Amino acid sequence: MRTDTYPPHLQGGGRGWRDTATHYALLPLRIFLGVTFIYAGLDKLTDSAFMKDGGAGSIGDTMRAVRDSSAIPALVDLALKNPVGFGYAIALGELAVGIGTLIGLLTRLAALGGALISLSLWLTVSWASDPYYYGNDLIYLMAWLPLVLAGAPYLSLDALWHSRRRQRSGGLH
């Protein structure tokens, strides 16, 4: 005897609410990461103090401050060759990753970009966080991995393209 009856609006196409929840499980993560990275990119691009070689709140001073405590000082040295260029690269990368993730466009590639940005920031800016779990970049890195693996199979441009390709090939794709 089944005791798990659920309202019809939670049963998508004959699926139970648990199946529906599992089906869309990565959607909240995708929305959160997409919005967060769009915000982070726009915040950097619109912060007049950030996009400077030196001064309070600048990318240059931030990189110089973390250089000796980073896991890979050579990575910081590379960024310090052109701090403003590096700042723009990070900001535009975050923006591209956020938009791609939010709309589900080349989601696995966008998520890989987000993971690489998070990894580079963890190895440089937040490496000295003690204990390690106070540094948010490691958490972001781990949050990107499910999207790298699964992509955005639902409610995305990727899903729309896949569906159209499948229709054109007669359902064989």
Biggest beta-sheet profile: none
Mean pLDDT: 90
- Supply the number of helical segments: 8
User: Radius of gyration in whole Å, from Cα?
Assistant: 20 Å
- Helix fraction by DSSP (H/I, runs of at least 4): 55-70%
Secondary-structure element string: HHHHHHHH
> What is the 3D form?
elongated
Describe the secondary-structure layout:
Blueprint: H1 17-23, H2 27-46, H3 59-66, H4 73-80, H5 83-103, H6 107-124, H7 136-150, H8 157-168
Helix pairs in contact: 2-5, 3-4, 5-6, 6-7
Structure, explained:
With 173 residues, this protein is an all-alpha fold. Helix content is 63%, strand content 0%. Helix 3 packs antiparallel against helix 4 and helix 6 (107-124) packs antiparallel against helix 7 (136-150). It starts with 16 loop residues before the first helix and ends in a 5-residue tail after the last helix.
Quick summary:
This protein is mainly α and 173 residues long. It has eight helices and no strands.
Q: Can you give keywords for this protein?
A:
8 helices; mainly alpha
